[in-house]
Amino acid sequence: MRTLRIQTEDFDPGAEIRALAAGRAEVGAIVAFAGLVRGDDGLSALTLEHYPGMTQREIARHIEEAEERWPILGTTVIHRVGRLCPGQRIVLVAVASAHRRAAFEAAEFLMDYLKTRAPFWKQEHHGTETKWSEARRDDEVAAIRWNPA
Amino acid sequence: MRTLRIQTEDFDPGAEIRALAAGRAEVGAIVAFAGLVRGDDGLSALTLEHYPGMTQREIARHIEEAEERWPILGTTVIHRVGRLCPGQRIVLVAVASAHRRAAFEAAEFLMDYLKTRAPFWKQEHHGTETKWSEARRDDEVAAIRWNPA
Amino acid sequence: MTLLYFAWVRQKTGLGEEHVALPSHVHTIAELMEFLRARGAGYADAFSDPGRLRAALNQEHAPFHAQLCDEDEVAFFPPVTGG
Amino acid sequence: MTLLYFAWVRQKTGLGEEHVALPSHVHTIAELMEFLRARGAGYADAFSDPGRLRAALNQEHAPFHAQLCDEDEVAFFPPVTGG
Q1: Nearest CA in chain A to D7
Q2: Which terminus of chain A, N or C, has fewer Cβ atoms within 10 Å?
Q3: Segment holding B45, helix H or strand E
């Protein structure tokens, strides 16, 4: 069971969690990650842009990789694009498994990919100022831990 | 912000996730774990019993320990007791933080405690047969990794 | 003192909680288990193998050599299985 | 071929997508960047420092020495920042 959506609209984490477990008695654990826009440093909004053809296929490939690495029973990835204000939800990753360890690891693996290597670009709005976010070093390190050279 | 409840009633993961983030622009990450009763081996129901005075204080102490170890901004722990059927929710742990790593680690730390060392006892019902669950070795190992001797 | 029993210890003793006066010769949890074992068939069964039991003293896990006072709350139960 | 520009590359070129015939002397992404740089001030600015750019060929990350065909989709963008 796989759900993958890139959308401008908000999503409902509770409904997505319910859908992952619905009617499946083998699911014992669901780990859900919800990412929110932080209002650090006077941020007034973010605008997210992505490369649609590449985003879909790269995320799908990482879901497949997670399915190969861990015994998971379902995955939901929803990522918003467009203009988002502090406090708004930006991403949801939810993974269902029989046991908790696989669900935790697969969810963290997918989040590390999404936050570091997925083809998204962020523009930060501070009042009337706007700048493009730079790729971050510590995030690169986080992604590398799943694929040591 | 701390929520800790041991109850027979069900809970709403979506509402708990929303409550953890509500009006707090410094929250960038919420990791929620929902545990469900699996229908393995023809299990028809579980009955959970706990030691109320000890459960509350031990879980509260582990939430405090998580707050000391990771920069977390809020924690919700809800555990159900009483009779539960396959597919029903049994536990929710949700942790809010500025960044994802702390939220993932603190949620997993609390779940490992709850699943291995919290004073709960489970009775498994298979049709008309009933037996008490035994403590599990692999779970003990999972809990030990947070506190190497 | 207050005695609490959980899981199959509760089932074997037939009750979840009781209040007893601490006998003067009972100073530790181990001695309390010995004393309880003599209280009837259900107790004898529940406390026949201390290796299968765990104890808490005033809501904290405690070793069997822990010292007791009359106001203490002592609980007996099998190893916890977690939630 | 189809050319796509994202983030500040799109802002500098002034468009997100365009279709161009692959010139016969352009065989690699590096040569394509050289060719594009000569198309006007916005392009010259966007492609002035290849070290700040990344490319994808048919929706896969690709090195600048990758070979091109006329039906290819080539995208230029800054290093991704993730979601």
Answers
A1: A121
A2: C
A3: strand B45-50
Burial class (CB in 10 A: 0-12, 13-18, 19+), A25: middle
| CA pair distance B17, A92, nearest whole angstrom | 12
What strands, in cross-sheet order, belong to the sheet with D54-57?
A: D17-19, D2-5, D73-77, D54-57, D60-62
Minimal-distance CA residue of chain B relative to A106: B104
Which positions 95-124 of B are in contact with A (Cβ < 8 Å)?
98, 100-101, 103-104, 107-108, 111, 115
Secondary structure (3-state) at B131: strand
The predicted complex's ipTM stands at: 0.91
Tell whether A35 is within 8 A of chain D (Cβ).
Answer: yes
pLDDT digits (tens, 9 = 90+) for A93-112: 999 999 999 999 999 999 99
Which amino acid, A77? V
Is residue B76 pLDDT above 90, yes or no? yes
Count of helices and strands (H, E) across chain A: 4, 8
Cα-based distances in Å from B131 to A98, A100, B49, B127, D77? 22, 24, 13, 11, 61
What is the rounded CA–CA span in Å between residue D7 and residue A77?
A: 23
pTM: predicted TM-score of the whole model, two decimal places: 0.92
Q: At which residue do the structure tokens 């074992």 appear? A: C37
Of C7, C56, C78, the CB nearest to B54: C56
The answer to whether A39 and A114 have CB atoms below 8 angstroms apart is: no
Q: Is the sign of the CA dihedral A101, A102, A104, A109 positive or negative?
A: positive
Q: Any residues with CB less than 8 A from the CB of B95 and at least 6 apart, and which? A: B20, B30, B31, B32, B66, B72, B74, B75, B76, B102, B103, B106, B107, B110
Would you say D60 and A92 are in contact if contact means Cβ atoms under 8 Å apart? no
Short-list B62, B43, B8, B138, CA closest to C81 = B138
End-to-end CA distance of chain B: 31
Q: Does A28 touch chain B (CB under 8 A)?
A: yes
Do the Cβ atoms of D83 and A118 come within 8 Å?
yes
State the Cα torsion B17-B20-B25-B30 to the nearest 10°: -50
Dihedral sign computed on CA atoms, order B20, B21, B22, B23: positive
CA A113 to each of CA A25, A143, D16, D36: distance values in angstroms, whole numbers, following the listed order: 29, 6, 25, 31
Kindly report the three-state secondary structure assignment for every residue of B96-127.
EECCHHHHHHHHHHHHHHHHHCCCEEEEEEEC
Q: Chain A to chain D, count of Cβ pairs less than 8 Å apart?
A: 64
Residue pair B75/B60 in contact (Cβ under 8 Å)? The answer is no
* A14 and D40 Cβ atoms separated by less than 8 Å: no
Radius of gyration of chain A (CA): 16
| Residue-wise pLDDT tens digits, B110-139 | 999 999 999 999 999 998 999 999 887 655
